[in-house]
Amino acid sequence: MPSNIGEGGGVRSVQRAFDILSLLSEDRRTLTIREVVDETGLAKTTALRLLQTLEHMGLLWATPKGFTAGPALWRWAHLARSAWELPAETVQLMRELGARHRETVNLYVPRDVRRICIAQQESPQPLRHVVRVGDELPLWAGASSKVLLIQAPERLLVRVARSSPYGEAHVATLRAWIGRAAHDGYAASHGEREPGLSAVAVPITVPITVPITVPITGPVTSAGAVTSAGAVSTGSTVGGGGRAAVAALTLSGPTVRFTEDRVREFAADLREAAKRMSERGFDHPLT
Fold first, then answer.
1. Residue 13, H or E segment
2. Which of 111, 194, 224, 235 is the most exposed place for a label (fewest CB within 10 A)?
3. Quick one: which H or E segment has residue 212?
4. How big is the CA angle at 98 (ends 137 and 176), to the nearest 5 degrees?
């Protein structure tokens, strides 16, 4: 019997269904059966069966011109937008930064060996740097990566380095970048990932918390679990005396506009905005 397990341990039929959905884009809002067959390599009967299933689930909608996005995707998009939406104050701070400096403002959060853009205020200038919300970028370079990795464990740094074009030897460079970012309170990059692109980033932080462990003075109840002889963890947390970076606030644009003086100016303004965001409390599904 043929296996339904796909690459990476996923279910092949589910992977194929999402391969079809991923063919939809702003430039192509309708799919024909022929396009699906040609671009996925599926047999026509398999493609048709998957298209009909997606239509039945409301993920696709049949039209005279082909299949387009269905109403269920709209509901999912609404849920995703609600989950990812940032507080109004955070959005306003980003708008003010963009208005003052006329460069693109981004918020990134770490996700394994990559960083994900969760918000953006686009520069009004013709020559500008733009990424889309939801885009994933590597952690092996860039100002945002340097501040996001400040407290990263060694094993993560090794994995990030291995994902870079330079291999594991890149760990030494990452340590140097991180050390400087931790000392300065911000990081800058010039052409590290893309020639001609520069950025300045600062961390947004939250208090570090640690589990409370207290001596056992009686029988352990369902409120706690024994962690070691004579101690029980209550599941509560207290301040750990420090703060951890959970996001990076960034200004980016063409290197020609990121002079040394401007970098210092950007860093000072970014730090003030990040301080306000951190004091307010930063919460996001990916953090």
1. helix 12-21
2. 235
3. strand 197-215
4. 45
CA atoms within 13 A on the CB side of 148: 30
Largest separation between any pair of C-alpha atoms in the chain: 73
Task: Give residue-wise pLDDT tens across range 119-170.
Answer: 999 999 999 988 888 899 999 999 999 999 999 999 999 999 999 999 999 9
pLDDT score for 182: 95
Closest listed residue to residue 189, CA positions, set 250, 128, 135, 98: 250
Q: With helix as H, strand as E and coil as C, how does 73-102 read?
A: HHHHHHHHHHHHCCCHHHHHHHHHHHHHHC
Cβ-Cβ contacts under 8 Å for 33 (sequence gap 6 or more): 44, 47, 48, 51, 66
Number of other residues whose CB lies within 10 A of the CB of residue 194: 15
Residue 27, Cβ density class (10 Å: 0-12 exposed, 13-18 middle, ≥19 buried): exposed
Note whether 23 and 31 are within 8 A (CB).
yes
List the end-to-end C-alpha distance of the chain, in Å, as a whole number. Answer: 42
Which amino acid is present at 270? L
Contact partners, residue 17, CB within 8 Å, separation at least 6:
50, 53, 54, 59
Name the average pLDDT for the chain.
85
